[in-house]
Design goal:
The chain contains 22 helices and ten strands. The protein has about 475 residues and is of the alpha/beta class.
């Protein structure tokens, strides 16, 4: 959802760095996720070939997005569904409200959807209707009155003890810290809501244009119930989620699932093809697909930025990002966090609304290496940084004396002799860095451990080894 005031990553990140419980939660969960992903990827010797193929499919689809979307629309209509188009977030939420009001629906169940978070769907619906998130992580953050902190794991920032305390406070159930008891309590509540629901809302992971098939990847079965139990199924989808053929899933599913959760396959891969047919025993009598632009056409028209739309929302870039690992998702203050959020948020909301996001990165390149479709995130970050700095009156990440500091650094590094002398000088002066007065350098060091220079530089060690005794 577009913000009305500029997002303040820098001040939010300072608060997050001082939250020891948050950092422990991030370290514990992300550590397990990274280990699982590494093992899952290692099982596929053709992983890089899959990445290259998926990237090629995505870029080809983006180059003819309008044509592919029209094919998808025709296929959905042929299967008895309805297709609606929304140019903005407000139009998308109004379409959902209108669908409910025309049928006098008041009870809605909703499965996980980052697009729903982006357009502020819950906030719009909750003013007039009963809306319940049915994904366990989303249900937890809804209870807490928070927003998801991760693309795949919405409650990543909370520990088991914090979730248990939340259940006791909001639901008045005692579950201890046992995962099975927490899950059982949530399941019991969800069942009652599913039985009463009149409308089910889901997101979409992929939509195959050739057959009108929507693909929803999940582990809990809640999306499947959100589709099959209510009388109306509404799927909301960003226009970039379309792929040309159902056969392309053989490439995208291994990439998405192994990158997101480290599994070989999720518990459920739902293939949805419109409303229930006369000869089918279950499924919704009505199906509506809402295709949402909300700034995506603008991104598509920019050659330097359009590869952002290739993202398949796996969260792998977040998991490997040293910045995200330190501060978590809420520090970004936006729907999308981590490296993908650092490039997507300024494009959706405008660089004036998220001027600090492109600077929330070390540019280490780990995000590009982890991305299953090879989005050049570091290059896009640099492009956006330039656009932020070129704005008249821009103040994002400007440091006093920065221009002269970089000029001095460039002068030293342009000569091997000057560079060696700088290294020798730095080893002598480094102890003073810890006692710097508050300022740019001192502020930078507050949230970081300054590395100490080696007693002997690598150049000297290499020279001694090369010359021998």
């Amino acid at each position: 959802m577009k913000t009305t005031t500029p997002l303040r990553f820098r001040s939010n990140s300072r608060e997050a760095l001082n939250d020891r419980q948050l950092r422990d939660n991030l370290r514990h969960t992300l550590g397990k996720t990274l280990h699982s992903r590494e093992a899952a990827v290692a099982e596929l010797p053709h992983w890089e070939q899959l990445r290259r193929h998926a990237r090629a499919v995505k870029l080809h689809t983006l180059s003819r997005l309008g044509r592919t979307l029209r094919r998808l629309e025709a296929a959905v209509l042929e299967r008895g569904g309805t297709v609606l188009w929304a140019e903005t977030a407000a139009q998308a939420t109004q379409l959902v409200l209108d669908l409910a009001h025309r049928r006098d629906f008041t009870r809605i169940v909703k499965s996980k959807s980052m697009l729903g978070e982006e357009i502020g769907l819950n906030e719009a619906l909750e003013r007039r209707l009963e809306v319940v998130e049915t994904d366990l992580g989303e249900f937890v953050v809804q209870l807490a009155g928070q927003r998801p902190s991760h693309l795949v794991a919405p409650a990543l920032h909370l520990s088991r003890a914090q979730v248990a305390a939340l259940f006791e406070e909001k639901l008045e159930v005692s579950v201890g810290q046992d995962v099975e008891r927490i899950t059982a309590a949530a399941r019991s509540i969800m069942r009652r809501h599913f039985q009463r629901a009149q409308m089910g809302i889901t997101g979409v992971n992929f939509a195959a244009a050739d057959s009108g098939t929507l693909v929803v990847v999940e582990n809990e079965g809640n999306a499947r119930l959100s589709v099959s139990v209510p009388r109306l199924h509404v799927a909301i989808m960003g226009i970039e989620k379309v792929i040309p053929r159902l056969a392309d899933l053989s490439v995208f599913l291994p990439l998405l699932i192994r990158s997101a959760t480290g599994q070989r396959i999720t518990s459920y891969v739902d293939l949805i093809q419109g409303p229930r047919r006369p000869d089918e025993p279950d499924g919704p009598p009505e199906f509506v697909l809402i295709l949402v632009d909300n700034g995506r056409s603008r991104i598509l028209a920019d050659p330097a930025l359009r590869e952002t739309l290739a993202c398949i929302r796996c969260g792998a870039c977040q998991n490997v990002c040293p910045v995200f690992q330190s501060v978590g998702g809420h520090a970004y203050g936006s729907t999308y966090q981590g490296p993908i959020g650092a490039i997507l948020t300024p494009q959706l909301d405008g660089v004036g609304q998220a001027p600090e996001h492109p600077f929330a990165s070390s540019l280490c390149g780990a995000c590009r290496e982890a991305c299953p479709v090879g989005i050049p995130i570091p290059e896009i970050l640099v492009e956006l940084r330039g656009r932020v700095q070129s704005r008249k009156g821009a103040q994002a990440w400007r440091i006093p004396g920065r221009k002269w500091a970089f000029a001095l650094w460039a002068w030293c590094c342009s000569s091997p002799g000057r560079y060696r002398r700088l290294l020798r000088l730095s080893r002598r002066l480094w102890p003073l860095a810890e006692r710097l007065p508050r300022g740019a350098a001192r502020s930078w060091s507050l949230g970081r451990t300054l590395p100490h220079p080696a007693p002997r530089p690598f150049r000297d060690l290499y020279r001694d080894r090369k010359e021998g005794p």
